[in-house]
Amino acid sequence: MKKYSKKYTAALAKVDAKKIYDLAEAVKLVKETSVTKFDASVDVSFNLNVNPTLADQLIRGTITLPHGNGKTKKVLVVTNTKIEEAKEAGADFVGGKDMLEKIQRENWFGFDVIVATPDMMGELGKMGRLLGPKGLMPNPKTGTVTMDVKGAVIDIKKGKIAYRVDRDGNLSMPIAKVSFSDADLLDNLTAVCDHIAKSRPSTVKGTFIITAAISTTMGPAVQISFPGRN
What is the CATH code for 17-69+161-225? Predict the structure, then answer.
């Protein structure tokens, strides 16, 4: 039987595992039950009734949170034509084929997101086995293959999050830090829940969102209910 720390056990006792909380209640409770000494991340997770092997049920996309998620992502822009635009927008690293060679030569991954102009996708495509498993391959569906480099970089820096359901129908994303105000955390959580609820494929029969919960790093999960969860 798994043993928990006294702090986690005390936090767990505050959560009714059989109850599904409304979002405002859940926000207060998840902050009360944070067990770390550092400013923990608040994550929301869903289990969806989808078959990701079907193209129209592969739930993926992006969302820009109203208040960001408290994390600053390092952005690499791969381009030959938008170098100055990328720098002005606040990209952390900018270059063309030289950057791709650096990744291959040094196994360098000092960034969180790659934004690329369409003309560079031929070179990036050759690195699929290296970038794909790390979730770093740019994709038009997430807005990371674009001629609007400035807009893409600014959105990412503001807190734009890319998400994708896994093969078991699970989808999760970091939406805040424990230090966020209740109001800001609630705004972010509401935005994500509304967004996911509206992503229901027309081919899904019956319940779409099987479970939904929020939790802090190493903290207990709090089940949530919201309009559109069905």
Answer: 3.30.190.20
